[in-house]
Amino acid sequence: MSVKELGFQQTPLGELTLRQRAEPRLGGIDVFEVKLGDEYLMSSLFTESERQLATTGLAPLTGDLDVVIGGLGLGYTAVEALKNPNVSSLLVIDLFQAVIDWHHAGLVPNGEFLANDPRCELRQGDFFELARSGFDASAPERKFDAVLLDIDHSPEHHLDRGNASLYTFEGLTSVKDQLKPNGTFAFWSNDQASITYTERLREVFGTAEAHDVEFPNPYTGATSVNSVYIAQKNGTMKS
Q: Please, what are the domains in the chain?
């Protein structure tokens, strides 16, 4: 199997690489992958739950929407968010400047679309640090209609140990404080939905749901499951 390395950066968390390869089990289609060390962060082969993160996270909202996304990856969540005609402004924060550069250089399938949409800004930053101080470092008082997060593997499995504090009561409260009234916080998880964690979100935000997202896995020949959590500030979602 031929693998082409399109991008590389040494980071404090390990070697960050962008790869392209042909997948023989699917007729030789091109697959793009982002890896951090030995861990796969994103694959263009599995995008259903990343796209549902945007549709689910924005579904309760109306009017002009100001949205922030934590984690750019291959851009599927951001592209799906921009398909919503109510989204007037989208700030995408990624820890690695290299990932942003790959999009601007057109090295990934969604790069040109995101780089050319005037509503979308790709900005380097530490989402978890900004959760404490203000997601828009140039305007710390800015409030958002929705915060969408796709960085860690799950609330319990983090890319960096320092990320764990976001998922505590205090960390979630910091996110809530950056939302407008009725704003939503949604995030992706590689695991099936947890009742325990849904209850923690409900405790902070008032309403919360979790949805399992099933999709076919050509490597196992079975169905795989990710999940999307969504909480709404002062919201009226079903609990």
A: 46-233 (3.40.50.150)
Name the region of 195 (left: φ>0; alpha: ψ -120 to 50; beta: rest).
alpha
pLDDT tens column, 2-15: 889 999 999 999 99
17 CB contacts (<8 Å, ≥6 apart)? 5, 7, 8, 34, 35
Q: Are 226 and 49 in contact (CB under 8 A)?
A: yes
- Percentage of the chain exceeding pLDDT 70: 97
Both structure tokens of 126: 């530490």
Distance (Å, whole) CA 149 – CA 77 = 9
Instruction: Find out whether 4 and 25 touch, Cβ atoms under 8 Å.
Output: no
- H or E element at residue 173: helix 169-177
Confidence of residue 39 (pLDDT cuts 50, 70, 90): confident
* pLDDT band at residue 99 under the 50/70/90 scheme: very high
- Say whether 133 sits in a helix, a strand or coil: helix
Nearest-10 Cα torsion for 180, 118, 151, 26: 130
pTM: 0.94
